[in-house]
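Q: Here's a chain of 116 amino acids. Please give me its 3D structure as tokens.
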Amino acid sequence: QVQLVESGGGFVQAGGSLRLSCAASGSIFGINAMGWYRQPPGKQRELVATITRSSTTNYADSVKGRFTISRDNAKNTVYLQMNSLKPEDTAVYYCNVDYIVSGNHWGQGTQVTVSS
């Protein structure tokens, strides 16, 4: 059974840092891309960053130079290191995992709140 468990969200002041983690289970045949998306209050869900199985990364322009996505294939876990956080980074952050065979799945979301 596919399960994604997110952790690491919380409240931080502007300029601070947080690290999100997402552990994926239920992968018998492996995982392709992994990524993070976010949904700010009153807005649509948007891409933050993605990483392929071979660790090629892609970032939204708004987070380039501040956020770093990484993954541990042995642990089926994806991370998002968020530095120099801004109030506009406030959102619910969702993990997204593309399983080989099982397809695409979303985590339950974790709240990140950045105060000014």
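Q: Can you summarize the key feature?
A: The chain has no helices and eleven strands.
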